[in-house]
Write a structure and sequence with these properties.
594 residues, alpha/beta, eight-stranded mixed sheet, 16 helices
Length: 594
């Protein structure tokens, strides 16, 4: 016998839900038509004009609002919210995102398969449709950072065999692929043989090396930063996934003008809690893209059906008969804040509020206590240059991370810094005007590195964090060793999190006990704590426009151009280490030049 969706479409049985008087956005032909939508058994049965005699168990007056498909985020990391999956799903659904494709490489870097299994199990009974990828590049830069887990060909085979794993997570070792390195190519080939989807992170590749990346079978990229790169990747068959931080008027124009638009998506990638709670999720990316000039109907298409097709899910992402009933009603598609969200035919959220309870899965004990490092002393944070006995002062050439205080893309700076007289075989550099940074391995290896950042000034205190992409070692930033050590040791004791200190006193301590990444706190309460910490950091002199991203990304060894890992200063473009200092001279320079 035909199912109820088919019978309702034929008018032989009542709809479960009938939504009247709506302007329906058709993402197949970029049009808007007035009419009604009938739902049955969690699917869409009818889309069109209201006909006399149509009946339903429940009828909703849409009030001439827009009916838009639930947003489909085809590339993201749910751990960036620092929330457990139930809290995270509730927030996303209230904002109109009904489907996500999650790469759990954040928690996998710390807790391996146990972390992935927890996220999958915690999401299993939630009304948020979730596709989980197998993280491919752990650590993100092999040989350039230490992590708590590593993926090779054997591990990838095991990950892909796990129930619920959907495809290959973003391949971030783009240089390794471009250089045809056996380790990463064996991981990619293992996934390719299964026929699953494979996500990429291409960043600095173009020309012949970009073609090598595409030839491996990886066919998406969410790091496109220029219109020229977008056109090049579309011409090679990539699905280009535009994220908020990469959008600009030139890229948006190229999206509008693209002769074929089926392989352009809008995605979130990472959304820190303060942005998630105050600005939104994929709805915010859509709104900003429209503000930059993207045609509103293209923006809706790029955030719905295009993402669904990318995920090979042909029954979501559109309002049409037979599709899953994921629908949001909103007053203005240019400002896509839904007043009603329906997921799988169920009303989930109204006016930004969830109207049903979500199950909370108890966190496995193995995901607690992941700070495998010893207490840090102030001496561990002192930058010292070895010199000969009796050295009377001079200078050294330092390799420094250059920051503009706006983006997280850094540049390589070389600068001579004055050195003090020798004491106990070392000379100390004058770091006035520079921000100090240290990264400590927290996965059981006794190693850490020190660095300097220009463009951020010298703050009066310090801030430390264990949510530090992608290896999630402990990163600490500050203007003096005392406060830096206090923050570091506080996080060792708390099981991970965020900490700010000034003048020897802790101002803020926010535990993230689940793998040092996630909190079980209510999102509103956690937001209050994080907002206070960021405010205290600004008061101390941390001046970056987006402090959340700055703190979490300065240790990411695949993010251009220069970053600091637990193993040292990484030149990302050339895949090599840089010494912190070189060319020590006993020259008494008072005003060293760059």
């Amino acid at each position: 016998m035909a199912d109820r969706t088919v019978l309702a479409a034929a008018g032989k049985t009542d709809f479960d839900l009938l939504i009247k008087d709506v302007r329906i956005v058709n993402v197949f032909n970029d049009t808007v038509t007035e009419g009604c939508i009938g739902l049955a058994d969690g699917r869409i049965a009818y889309v069109g004009d209201y006909e006399e005699g149509m009946a339903a168990s429940e009828i909703i007056d849409g009030g001439h609002s827009y009916a838009v498909p639930g947003f489909v985020d085809s590339h993201m990391h749910l751990e960036s919210s620092m929330l457990t999956p139930d809290h995270f799903a509730a927030r996303l659904l209230s904002l109109g995102t009904t489907t996500v494709c999650a790469d759990p490489h954040e928690i996998a870097n710390v807790s391996g398969k146990k972390g992935i299994e927890y996220l999958m199990e915690a999401c299993r009974d939630l009304p948020l449709r979730l596709f989980m990828m197998a993280p491919s590049t752990i650590p993100s830069a092999p040989g350039f950072e230490g992590s708590g887990y590593a993926v090779d060909q054997k591990e990838m085979e095991e990950l892909l065999s796990m129930e619920g794993i959907y495809g290959l997570g973003e391949v971030m070792d783009f240089n390794g692929v471009g250089n045809c390195e056996e380790h990463i190519l064996s991981v990619v080939e293992t996934a390719r043989k299964t026929g699953c989807i494979m996500d990429g992170h291409v960043a600095l590749l173009d020309g012949r090396r970009l073609q090598v990346f595409r030839a491996s079978g990886i066919d998406s990229d969410h790091t496109v930063g220029t219109a020229e790169k977008l056109k090049e990747e579309l011409a090679l068959g990539f699905t280009v996934q535009g994220q908020l931080g990469k959008l600009n008027p030139e890229i948006v124009k190229a999206m509008n003008d693209a002769p074929v638009k089926a392989r352009i998506c809008l995605v979130t990638d990472d959304v820190p809690l303060n942005r998630l709670m105050k600005e939104g999720h994929l709805n915010h990316v859509v709104e900003k893209a429209i503000e930059l000039g993207l045609d509103p109907l293209y923006a809706i298409r790029f955030a719905t059906i295009n993402g669904a097709v990318r995920l090979r899910c042909y029954d979501i992402g559109a309002i049409a008969p037979g599709m899953q009933a994921d629908i949001q009603l909103m007053d203005d598609i240019r400002h896509p804040m839904p007043r009603l969200v329906i997921s799988g035919g169920r009303k989930i959220a109204e006016n930004g509020r969830i109207i049903s309870k979500f199950p909370h899965l108890k966190v496995p004990s193995e995901l607690y206590g992941t700070m495998h490092m010893e207490t840090v002393a102030e001496e561990d944070l002192i930058i010292r240059c070895p010199v000969k006995k009796g050295f009377r002062g001079g200078s050294a050439l330092f390799n420094i991370i250059g920051e503009d205080g706006v983006s997280v893309a850094t540049r390589h700076i070389q600068k001579r810094l004055c050195l003090s007289e020798e004491k106990d075989g070392y000379a100390l550099p004058d770091t006035e005007g520079l921000l100090r940074m240290a990264v400590f391995n927290r996965h059981g290896k006794k190693q850490h590195s020190l660095g300097l950042i220009e463009g951020m000034g010298t703050p009066k205190g310090a801030m430390a964090i264990t949510y530090s992409h992608d290896a999630h070692n402990l990163s600490v930033f500050g203007g003096n060793e005392r406060d830096m050590a206090i923050c570091t040791n506080a996080l060792i004791g708390s099981g991970g999190g965020l900490c700010a200190a000034r003048d020897g006193e802790i101002l803020d301590l926010i535990p993230l006990p689940v793998s040092g990444l996630l909190s079980e706190e209510d999102p509103e309460e956690l937001l209050i704590q994080i907002e206070k910490l960021l405010s205290d950091c600004r008061d101390m002199g941390f001046s970056h426009r987006d402090l959340s991203s700055f703190f979490t990304l300065m240790a990411l060894a695949v993010s251009p151009r220069i970053k600091l890992s637990d193993m040292g200063l990484v030149d990302v473009a050339h895949k090599s280490f840089l010494p912190l200092y070189e060319d020590i001279r006993e020259d008494h320079i008072d005003n060293p030049t760059k």
